[in-house]
Amino acid sequence: MTIGRIAPETETPLLEVENLKKHFPIRKGLFSRVVGQVYAVDGISFSVAPNETLGIVGESGCGKSTAGKAILNLIKPTDGEVKLEGKRIDNLSGAKMRSVRKQLQVVFQDPYSSLNPRLRVGEIVGEPILNFDSRNRHAREERVIELLERVGLPADAAKKYPYEFSGGQRQRIGIARALALDPKMIVCDEPVSALDVSVQAQVVNLLMDLQQDLKLSYLFVAHDLAVVEHISHRVAVMYLGKIVELSDKHSLFSDPLHPYTEALLSAVPQPSPRRKPDRIVLKGDVPSPINPPKGCRFHTRCPYAFDRCYVEEPPLREVEPGRQVACHLHDDAEGTKGPSLPS
Amino acid sequence: MVATIESAEEDAVGQQGHDESALLEVEGLSTYFFTRDGVVRAVDDVSFSVAAGETVAVVGESGCGKSVTSLSIMGLLQTPPARIVSGHIKLQGRDLLTLPESEMRKVRGNEISMIFQEPMTSLNPVLTIGRQIGETLVLHEGLSEKEAESRAVELLRLVNIPEAERRVREYPHQLSGGMRQRVMIAMALACQPKLLVADEPTTALDVTIQAQILELMSDLKQKTGSAIIFITHDLGVVAEMAERVVVMYAGKKVEEAPVVDLFERPRHPYTAGLLDSVLKLGSSSGERGKRRLNEIPGTVPSLKDEIVGCPFAPRCSYATDYCRTDAPVLEEKAPEHFAACFHSDQLAEQEN
Amino acid sequence: MAITTLNPPRIAKSRLTGRLVAQIKRHPTVALGSSLLLLMVAMALLAPLLQTHGPQDISPADRLQNPSSEFVFGTDMLGRDLYSRVVHGSKISLLVGVGVAAISISVGLAIGLLTGFLRWFDAIVMRIMDGLMSIPPVLLAIALMALAGASIQNVIMAIAIAEIPRVVRLVRSLVLSLREEPYVEAAVSSGTPLLRILIRHILPNTLAPLLVQGTYIFASAMILEAILSFIGAGTPPEIPSWGNIMAEGRTYFQSAPFIILFPGFFLSLAVLAVNLLGDGLRDALDPRLARRL
After folding, report:
1. Does A279 touch chain B (CB under 8 A)?
2. CA distances from C212 to C21, C133, C208, C275 (A)
3. C279 in the Ramachandran plot: left (φ > 0), alpha (ψ -120 to 50) or beta?
4. DSSP structure class, residue C71
5. In what order do the strands lie in the sheet containing A323-325?
6. Distance from CA of A87 to the nearest CA of B (A)
7. CATH number of the domain that residue C75 is part of
8. What chain C residue is nearest to A172 in terms of C-alpha separation?
9. What pLDDT shows up at residue C5?
10. How far apart (Å, rounded) are the C-alpha atoms in residues A137 and C21?
11. Is the separation of the CB atoms in B269 and B317 below 8 Å?
């Protein structure tokens, strides 16, 4: 198996996201007055190179799934730009957006609700093809069978209904549907988190095989750090609508720069009973995205927070080649060095 | 079918006998669901015991019967469709299955209590936290409303809820998921039970919150000395919390061992497969894609059809012809290490 | 890799007819309700054959006769044969029931689908629907009948208008929740045009609850028709309907209670049949109930 690649700086990215924001207004009262905003995604920027996997991790409510949906144009972003192959897609709608969707597909989390229970598997997998070419029925049916076999399902699955399959098999059907239009980019929104461990491995392997054979790019949104580590080339960590750290997988997991990343990594229970956890247990809960804390959003739970963190929001900036972090502990360049991160 | 259950039950009792030190003994428990489409053998002849103060994890994937086992112990099964068709569940020698419901109600919440996966749905949304914790105390310990409330405040402090005096008057929806799970734990501990049954208590929580709850549970166990049955699918949580582990597959117990033995020398191919397929953090931090994940092929068998031979045989790389016709019985393969597999030794050699 | 599907043999005959037969076996209420209803329909269609006298034949000599072999259900104050009138009355009840159900479901479905997808339309239409729903259906129907005049078409229209808001509310809530379903989002993501999303993904999933709602509307329309006719604001008096017959028998209740009892019994039976069918269908078509183990 070939080795994955780290995105070279020189190459044109397939997907570019710039300062993407999605705020949901909170309405109240008789006239639906807007009384506040949920800052679900609050200015995130990243890019994904061809044939690369960018993982986005974070806990529930950090905005990772909303970011995925905004990129897919399933919800309209409040602000910012999404570019696919250099062309803006966030402001498209109707027929123009439909043609972009050939390039940009999605695999959902829940293998049960993401398949229409009233359609046969063949109709589900064939629908994307039908949307762009409704004439050649025979060719479509052949393509469906090819797709099913590609994801490890028998050809006769096309005639069955989704409820006749197990969770893992349903997720394969969802993947076959995403592949139907030969996309370049697939947004995977927690694709394995609803599956059992042994089946998770099957689906992760399938996704990695497909990437290699079909030169796909993935935006892999998940909360399971181990899965993200396994499948990604680069990883972005989100907290309360912001990216707090973005770097290549190897450095992020072996030497996290942001205190949140560090705590997140140490919180994962490891399947080795002899190694008792040396754990940073964060105090308290994630604050509400309706009123995110002033200054650094993580300061309420950060074990290293100092005065500057309470007032000034650290921007995401490159501290080492290919490593971005939003934390005042890495303010070296400015000359106002905070306490260095204890190892 | 009935005959085989009875003989299996006798075997189980004959082999293990009555263990004086055990707090809870589950003997030959079979819980079936009788549905329109047939009988679902959710739990099939499962035996294990829990000593006082011990933490036993029951692991397995969805549909393996681990939750039904816990509900059987608590006497909280919906009957019909479920029915315990055979077996005993003994708490300090007293068979809970023969107790009338009124007696069982005194046992629940008092001697055994339970923590559920979904803290929101297991709390009553229209009662304050204090009332819900206090209810068990009023019921089981005969405290007055006022005493119960002050005990509730103490319990909330015990589970590290800040501003306990204020929180005790709040409603469940005003708390975060992690807080609610703390409240559930406080409720479960209210009457100082001897046994705590925790059914996936951290599955619905984020990792940083899960870390808090696991730490809390370990602390409380030190303080209260309750035994814990920890039902989970997460091997990481098992490694961290359990002293002994019971592995279930397709309604049957396939392996039981002390936690280190189980993780280092699994004697059942299913356990081995599970351990291989689970992703460990930091394990692939070399070059990506070098290691393909080990997967267990195929899917879990349907429990509606009677399983002939070993339930894992269709997915097992060690399976031979007699695995498909004869069901392996649970045997002691190493001291305190039980597995139901004909090829345990072969597996052990390979692992070495 | 071994891929095995769950329970393949049982579902192999997933043809619609095969499933229907199996469903009826599983849901005896559907079978009972629909066979009762079929009997009613047969009675309505075969009324000219089943009648023993002309439903309008006046015979003053035989007025207010008790049930006998000549007049099975007795006669009314004009000496008309009650049995023949009741048999013919079933036509009106069923016609009104079916007509109201069909009109209110189709109009309600169209409005509901649009309100679920068009925000501005939703804002206007739902306020009108709220207004209509705040008036009790009987009063609304009476008022509409007073404006339109007595005829069967007007009865159907009046009751249908009173029922439409309920259908719109149901469809709208279904559409709003279906829109959020991941499979609808998946369809949007794969470039499916709006019309195909509506027809393929939204509409089929609204039909089952609508069918159930339809049976309840059917039942309540029959009752409303009888009420309207009973108070003289419904079916014109020259047409025998169960409501009319009961209205006419009202003053003779002491001496000839059977004039009210027979049509009343048939009305109850018809309503029961339709409701049994509806309850059965609700259980049979609810995927959550059907999938349960």
Report:
1. yes
2. 19, 20, 6, 9
3. alpha
4. S
5. A104-107, A185-189, A217-222, A53-57, A234-239, A242-248, A323-325, A317-320
6. 30
7. 1.10.3720.10
8. C3
9. 40
10. 32
11. yes
Per-residue pLDDT tens over the stretch A24-53:
988 877 677 788 888 999 999 999 999 999
Residue type, C95: L
Query: What does the longest C-alpha to C-alpha distance in chain A come to?
Result: 68
Specify the higher pLDDT residue, B241 or A134.
B241
* Sequence letter at residue C105: I
For residues B133 and B128, give the distance between their C-alpha atoms in angstroms, rounded to a whole number: 9
Asked if the structure places residue C21 within a domain, the reply is: no
Predicted pLDDT of residue B284? 58
Angle A255-B214-A340 from CA coordinates, rounded to 5°: 30
List helix spans (H) across chain A.
Answer: 64-71, 94-100, 121-132, 137-150, 167-179, 197-214, 225-231, 249-254, 259-267, 307-311
- Is A47 buried (19+), middle (13-18) or exposed (0-12) by CB count in 10 A? middle
**Which residues of chain C, if any, have pLDDT below 50?**
1-14, 289-293
Distance, CA of B67 to CA of B33 (rounded, Å): 13
What are the phi and psi torsion angles at C273 (to 5°)? -60, -45
Q: What CA–CA distance (Å, rounded) separates C17 from A25?
A: 49
By C-alpha distance, which of B58, B62, B82, B37 is closest to B300? Answer: B62
Residue A82: exposure state from Cβ atoms within 10 A (0-12, 13-18, ≥19) = buried
From the list A224, A229, A285, which residue is nearest B285 (CB)?
Answer: A229
Query: Facing residues of B113 across strands?
Result: B196
Provide the residue ranges of all domains of chain A, joining segments of one domain with +: 15-103+183-334, 104-182
Contacts of C232 (CB under 8 A, 6+ apart): C247
Type of residue found at B54? E
**Rounded-to-integer distance, Cα A117 and Cα C104, Å:** 27
Residues 6+ apart with CB under 8 A from A340: A329
Domain range for C55: 46-291
- Contact yes or no for C92/C152 (Cβ under 8 A): yes
Between the two ends of chain A, the Cα-to-Cα distance in Å is: 35
Is B142 within 8 Å of chain A by CB?
A: no
C203 touches chain A (CB under 8 A): no
Q: What is the pLDDT of residue C164?
A: 92
For chain B, the helix, strand and coil percentages under 3-state DSSP, each to the nearest 5: 40, 25, 40
- Chain C adjacent subunits, 3+ CB pairs under 8 A: A, B
Q: What is the pLDDT of residues A80-122, one digit of tens each?
A: 999 999 899 988 887 888 889 999 999 998 888 899 988 899 9
Instruction: Write down the CATH number for the domain with range A15-103+183-334.
Output: 3.40.50.300
Q: How many domains does chain C have?
A: 1
Per-10-residue mean pLDDT, chain B, length 352: 42 46 88 85 91 91 88 86 89 88 85 82 84 83 84 85 85 83 84 88 83 86 88 91 93 92 91 87 57 80 84 89 89 90 85 67
Q: Cα torsion for C12, C17, C23, C28, to the nearest 10°? A: -150
What element of type H or E holds C153? helix C152-179
| Pairing assessment for the beta strands B195-199 and B112-115 based on DSSP bridges | parallel
Report yes or no: A322 and A47 within 8 Å, Cβ to Cβ: no
B308 touches chain A (CB under 8 A): no
Q: In terms of DSSP bridges, do strands B195-199 and A33-48 run parallel, antiparallel, or are they unpaired?
A: unpaired
- B37 in A contact zone (CB under 8 Å): no
Q: Are B22 and B49 in contact (CB under 8 A)?
A: yes
Interchain CB contact of C1 with B (< 8 Å): yes
Any bridge partners for residue B329, and if so which? Answer: none
Nearest-by-Cβ selection for C2 from B33, B81, B314: B314
Is the CB of A197 less than 8 angstroms away from the CB of B233? Answer: yes
pLDDT for the residue numbered A159: 92
pTM of the model as a whole: 0.81
